[in-house]
Amino acid sequence: MHSANMLLRRIVRSSVLPFATQHGMKKDLFPLRRTLSLSLCLKQDKSCEPSEKLDLDEWKKVMKSGLQEEVSEMVSEPKELSSLAAARETLEMWRLAGRAVPENMSEEQLKTFMECPSKSAKKKYLKYLHLKELHKKNDKRKMDERRERRLEAQDQDSKTEETKKTPFVCLWSRTMDKAYNWRAAQSMIFGQPLVFDMSYEKDMSVREVSNTVRQIVMSESSNRRSVDPFHIHFCNFKDDSLYHREFIKNYREAWDKLLITVTDQCYTEIFPKEKLIYLTADSPKVMKAFDHDKIYIVGSMVDKSIKRGVSLARAKRLGLETAALPLDKYLLWSTGAKNLTLDQMMHILLTLKDTADWKKALEFVPKRKYCDFVNKPVKELKKTLDLISTLKLGKGREKVEKQFTKNYPKRYKLK
C-alpha cells in the first residue's frame, strides 16, 4: 500500500506537476493530488467518509480549459500573421501581373485591404493607393527640380554679382545713376509737369491698389531714364494711406529720395485750370497732337473693376478739359478694351513729347489688341469696321467678302 502511494506520487511529480508549474496551476493541483492519493485507500478501505470522493471530471475540465486558453492565445497571432503574409503574396502576384498595386503598404492598409468585401473593391482600393503613391513621387520630384533650379539661380546670381562688382561696371552704373538723377532734378525745375491723380483709393481693392502702385513705379523708372523726363506730381496724396504704404513697400528707403513732387493738394489748387487736360478713355474729345504747354492728368487706377466714366465725371465736376488717345484713328482695333496701363501711357506720352509721331508712340499698345496701323482716312476705316461687324453677324457674307477684298486685296484675308 505504501509503495503504491509512493509510485503514484512519483508519477504525478514527473508528469503533471512540471506542466502545472509551467502554466500556473500548481496550487489547483494539490487538492487533486490528495484526492488521487486517497482514491487507492478508498478501494481497499471502505470505512472512509463519502465526502472524500474522487472528482476526476472536474480535474479534466480544469486541465482542458487551461490548455484551450493557452492554445487559443498561441494560435490567434499566427493566424493573423498568416493572413497578412497571404495578402502580401496576392499583392506581389498582382504586381507581377501588371496591375496597379502600390510598392509599399503598411499593416493598417493591408488590414483594410483584407476587409474589403469584394474583389472589385480590393482593386479599387489598391488603385487609389497606387495613385496616391504616384502623386507623392511626383510632388517629391517637382520639389527636387525646384531646389535644383533655385540652386542654379543662386549660382547665376552669385556669378552676376561678381561681374557687377568689377570696377568698370560699378563706375558705369554710378555715373548713369548720377546722370539720371541730374536729369530728374532738372525736370523738377524746367520740365513739363505730369500729374497722377491719387484720389481713387476708395474705388479699388487692396490688390488693385498694389497693382496700380507697381505700374506707377515702372512709369517713374521709365520717365527717369528718358532724355527729357516729366516733372511728376502725385496730387491728392494722403500720408499713411494705402497708396503710401504700397509705395514704401516698393521703394523702401529710396521713397524719401525720389525726385518727384508729392502733395495732398488738388491739381486745381496748384495749376491754372485752363492748362489742365484730363486724359481718360471715356472722353468724347480726341487728342490730335501733343501740347508742350499743357499739363496732362492721368488717373491712378486700374480700369478693370472700376465702372466706366468715373474719371470723366470727376473731370467734369472740376470743370476741366478732357481728351482721349486717338486709338481708333491710327489702329485697326480687333479685340480687347481700349484702356491702357499707366506704364504704357507713360511710354506713349514720352514718345509723343520727344518725336511727335503717333505711330511710334502707339507701338507701346499691346499688339494683341489691334491688327495693324491704319494707312487710309477715317471714313474708310469706319467702312471696314462696319464690314467686320456685318461679317460677325453673317449677313450677306459673299457680297461683303468681295467688297472687303477689293478694299484690302493684299494685307487682309478673310477666313
From TrEMBL:
GO terms for molecular function: tRNA (adenine(9)-N1)-methyltransferase activity; tRNA (guanosine(9)-N1)-methyltransferase activity; tRNA binding. One of its GO terms (biological process) is methylation. It is an enzyme of class 2 (transferase). It is found in: Mitochondrion. Residues 137-160 are annotated as: Disordered. It catalyses: adenosine(9) in tRNA + S-adenosyl-L-methionine = N(1)-methyladenosine(9) in tRNA + S-adenosyl-L-homocysteine + H(+); an adenosine in mRNA + S-adenosyl-L-methionine = an N(1)-methyladenosine in mRNA + S-adenosyl-L-homocysteine + H(+); guanosine(9) in tRNA + S-adenosyl-L-methionine = N(1)-methylguanosine(9) in tRNA + S-adenosyl-L-homocysteine + H(+). Its main location: mitochondrion. It comes from the Eukaryota. This is tRNA methyltransferase 10 homolog C. It comes from Melospiza melodia (Song sparrow). The gene is Trmt10c.
